[in-house]
Amino acid sequence: MSGTSLDGVDVAAIETDGERIMAFGPTSYRAYADNERALLRQALMDARALTSRTARPGVLAEAEAFITRAHAEAVEAFLDAEGIARKAVTIVGFHGQTVLHRPGDGLTVQIGDGAALAKRLGLTVAYDFRAADVAAGGQGAPLVPIFHRALARSIERPHPIAVLNIGGVANVTWVDGGDPVACDTGPGNALIDDFMRATTGAPLDRDGDQAARGRVDEDFIARVLKHPFFDQPCPKSLDRNDFALANVGLPELSVADGAATLSALTAASVARVVARLPQAPKAWIVAGGGARNPTLMKMLSQRLAPATVETADAVGWSSQSIEAQAFAYLAMRTLGGLPITFPQTTGAPQAMSGGVIATP
Ligand SMILES: Nc1ncnc2c1ncn2[C@@H]1O[C@H](COP(=O)(O)OP(=O)(O)OP(=O)(O)O)[C@@H](O)[C@H]1O
Ligand SMILES: CC(=O)N[C@H]1[C@@H]2OC[C@@H](O2)[C@@H](O)[C@@H]1O[C@H](C)C(=O)O
């Protein structure tokens, strides 16, 4: 999995039949080098003009070859390091890199060549998980809710439970026994990362150090939350750059105040989604890179009280690897013809299978 944060490739093995999770296997991570990340950032820019999901103008062809190669290297290194034989692997789930997500126009573009990956690895690969849902009128995201529900069944917390993923964009799954309800909540880490890069050159506000020292501009947050996205009912989804630093109107702030304000925006937009869920969650489990930011976690606890807020790691899951695990799970569901998207998670007209299978 390579998500909207453009930080690297997460790899994870799980044992599953696409319904139950029998065991979590090892995990690993391949970070992108600065020049690789710059290529992907350019790919996002060049993707803005796309009107077809197969066109590869600008650096998109180069970026696609890179994404395929980076995932192949990541899987090869993982299998070698863990001593996992090829024949022990049923399938590899390959999300690819989202470069454009405009479901309203019937367009979601993930670059990455699944057939080439299958050939190079000598393994069956499931890829292109979002297209069928978008073609049917769904949002094509989020896809992790069915995995979040399987995970939530393994813990004892008061229901409803919310599983919150804070990646570049943040998304939530609401679980209360029946079908999951889900949506993107708003910006996750992307705005914080972009602000840190622009003001200090650093790729992130590590451990929320800057945010912890800053003052939150609540007026700015109130202004951003007037955006119509926040009043839309679930399901709904975002492109990484729907809320971009260039267009959110952040006033001139110190590094600490800017980091604090953008972190609080993420927390406030999560709190804002509560009214859009069938019932307020009693227990929040936070995954994704945002779970590793203690300042953001504190802001979430404050804004979601009296509900409890814990990290995925605290309940025995992996904040870092949960999305990679989710795509392993979705790959097995694709192989078994099981649905991966639902009316209440993406707005699909009915429960739908998705993903394409490539054999070596
Ligand atoms: N120690 C840390 N302190 C603060 N922030 C962190 C830390 N570790 C990771 N992050 C944040 O998490 C981000 C990576 O998150 P994650 O890997 O969940 O994103 P992703 O998978 O790319 O996103 P998405 O869920 O949108 O697909 C980093 O870009 C950074 O902003
Ligand atoms: C189009 C796209 O790639 N969306 C990502 C993004 O990052 C988080 C959020 O926005 C979520 O909707 C989705 O990723 C996860 C893996 C998902 O589909 O569940």
UniProtKB/TrEMBL annotation:
Reaction equation(s) it catalyzes: 1,6-anhydro-N-acetyl-beta-muramate + ATP + H2O = N-acetyl-D-muramate 6-phosphate + ADP + H(+)
Keywords attached to this entry: ATP-binding, Carbohydrate metabolism, Kinase, Nucleotide-binding, Transferase
Pathway the protein takes part in: Amino-sugar metabolism; 1,6-anhydro-N-acetylmuramate degradation; Cell wall biogenesis; peptidoglycan recycling
Binding site for ATP: G3, T4, S5, L6, D7, G8, V9, D10
Coiled-coil regions listed in the entry: none
InterPro entries: Anhydro_N_Ac-Mur_kinase, ATPase_NBD
Enzyme class label: transferase
Record Pfam families: AnmK
SUPFAM superfamilies (UniProt xref): Actin-like ATPase domain
GO biological process: 1,6-anhydro-N-acetyl-beta-muramic acid catabolic process; amino sugar metabolic process; peptidoglycan turnover
Keyword Transferase set for record: yes
Known EC number: 2.7.1.170
GO molecular function, one term: phosphotransferase activity, alcohol group as acceptor
Cited PANTHER family: ANHYDRO-N-ACETYLMURAMIC ACID KINASE (PTHR30605:SF0)
Primary role: Catalyzes the specific phosphorylation of 1,6-anhydro-N-acetylmuramic acid (anhMurNAc) with the simultaneous cleavage of the 1,6-anhydro ring, generating MurNAc-6-P. Is required for the utilization of anhMurNAc either imported from the medium or derived from its own cell wall murein, and thus plays a role in cell wall recycling.
Family: Belongs to the anhydro-N-acetylmuramic acid kinase family.
Identification of the protein by name: Anhydro-N-acetylmuramic acid kinase
Chain's gene name: anmK
